[in-house]
Amino acid sequence: MKKYEIVKEHSDFDNVINKGKSYKCKSYYIYYKDNGLDNSRFGLAVSKKIGHAFLRNRIKRQLRMIIGNNKNVFQKGMDYIIIVRKHVLDIDYNEMQDELISVVKNGWINEK
Q: Which residues 6+ apart lie within 8 Å of 97 measured at CB?
């Protein structure tokens, strides 16, 4: 992901979480909101409850790869905040990808 595709500001996170729509699945809480830009932005959050720093960083790297390889699935002009749940520890990379992409492709997200 490029720098302009990342939600970094705490206020932006709060705005999307408090004013946007959400979807909950086994491995993720996904919040999304229109951002008024030409591109989508993504924010990732992995709690310390998930594990040590190396494990949290690995999960974030995997999520960035999933998002980068499947950008065409996500609707443009949206901010997405993906909060990882503990179930992600029980699945591998392919299952992580399948779950995230199926949520987006099946229309639970990106409904207008």
A: 66, 69, 70
Encode pLDDT of 63-103 as tens digits.
Answer: 999 999 998 898 889 999 999 999 999 999 999 999 999 98
Backbone angles phi, psi at 30, to 5 degrees: -120, 120
- Of all helices (H) and strands (E), which one includes residue 99? helix 93-105
| 8 A C-beta contact, residue 84 and residue 27 | yes
Helix (H) or strand (E) holding 81: strand 78-84
Q: Give the pLDDT band (50/70/90) at residue 110.
A: low
Q: How far is CA 43 from the centre of its chain?
A: 6
Separation of alpha carbons 108 and 52, rounded Å: 32
Rounded CA separation 98/58 (Å)? 18
pTM: predicted TM-score of the whole model, two decimal places: 0.87
Q: What is the DSSP letter of 18?
A: H
